[in-house]
Amino acid sequence: MKCLCALAIRQRGLGGQTFTRIIRDEDSNAAWAAVGDRVSREATVFADEHGSYNDLAGLNKLHRVNHSRAYQTDDGTKTNQVESFFSRVQRAYVGIQHRFSLKYFDWSVAGVAR
Where in the sequence is the domain holding 78, given as residue range(s)? Predict the structure, then answer.
């Protein structure tokens, strides 16, 4: 079975957009490419503790949240908006579509992002 990952970038604030990209591996190259393509250099990036986001500090100002310690940092940094997106993807998989076709996986994930 092939394995794919959904990478999501969520614009903060009410009405913020969600950009999705389907990647083969969750690594720093995929994260760098997605942020480089879709995020302004002046923007601040908020990410969890996953190692693939370490190199993003070279592109943008980067704030990290260590979810093994807390859901947000002492200064209020959190990734709740993008985490809620992945919850919606999981609910769509279990409750609506019952499976995602690899051929249309990008469409299925993008449909949840609307």
Answer: 5-113
